[in-house]
Amino acid sequence: METQLISSGFQYTTLPRSYIRSEPDRPKLSEVADYHNAPVIDLGFGDRKYIVQQISDACQQYGFFQIINHGVSKDITENMLKVSKEFFDLPIEEKMKLYSNDPSKTTRLSTSSNLQKEKIHNWRDYLRLHCYPLDKYDQEWPSNPSSFKEIVRNYCIEIRKLGLKLQEAISESLGLDKDYINNSLGLEQGQHMAINYYPKCPEPELTYGLPAHTDPNTLTILLQDMQVTGLQLLKDGKWLAVKPFPNAFVVNIGDQLQALSNSKYKSTWHRAVVNAHKPRISVATFLCPCNNAVIKAPSELIEDESKAIYKDFTYEEYYGKFWSRNLDQGHCLELFKNSREI
Ligand code: OGA
Ligand code: NI
């Protein structure tokens, strides 16, 4: 039978075989460092230079940071998490109306990661939405719960503003003009969302919600459940838990910013683990270059011509490659390296 949603209301007491990882590929949860967290940057404290410096340090050392005082109201984030939960709590028959495994669909509910390619599944269901321009896509979005469209629209508008502002600060932190990144990715750059739902898992040591991966887009802004941890990032060869911080978003550098920064900033490996006690929700917003935007490092970031780490490519080429592979197969950017660097 085709794999379908795991948020079906069925209470699993053992993990189905198709989710069980081989021994060396398991999360080894007891080895994960939780005494440490991704840097928290207060966007409301200190002058511009200080904020930009903290972003620069975090992007080089972690590829991740959390932000507080980001200007998005608590109402907007709380409603977003609440309506996401209401959506996943709907009866399975209702949710299945939106089910599809076709990655080219602009609105779809699906499960695991890339069912066509993967051998072992992941303990996750997700609703994937295209969010920009809103008027083009929002009629496809769920109309149940009845407040879904309005709440998600408001959230998308605020997050886009925040994302574009963050990309300005990131541009400055690379010593570039503040509009450099937004201009080179296109002012009409895309915005996608994945509302991730990780049900309670009977055997969390044997599987993942999402296995180690890097994000293929430019920048990811994640709203995570305050009560339940699950996100981990790889730093200096060790997995560390990104613990939820009150009223924060988690921000991470995607593959496109690693390429654009000539690898000064890293698109860091991260994963989501699951737990036996509580379902977990996270809302990931992905800013993505326009399809025809050419991704290349500016000359300021390349010492000389021979030091450009990546070939120039369009986002369309990149995204095609990304979906043709399995999520944990290795860094997709490796395929775009200049040959002399391999
Ligand atoms: C993602 C992702 C992490 C999480 O959706 O790409 O990394 O905690 N999510 O859900
Ligand atoms: Ni990710």
UniProtKB/TrEMBL annotation:
Give coiled-coil spans as residue ranges.
none
* Keyword Metal-binding applies: yes
Domain called Fe2OG dioxygenase: residue spans: 189-289
For this protein, the record's InterPro entries field holds: DIOX_N, IPNS-like_FE2OG_OXY, IPNS-like_sf, Oxoglu/Fe-dep_dioxygenase_dom, Plant_2OG-oxidoreductases
Tell me if Iron is a UniProt keyword of this record.
yes
A single Pfam family it belongs to is 2OG-FeII_Oxy
Question: What keywords were assigned to this record?
Answer: Iron, Metal-binding, Oxidoreductase
What's the family?
Belongs to the iron/ascorbate-dependent oxidoreductase family.
Listed name of the protein:
Fe2OG dioxygenase domain-containing protein
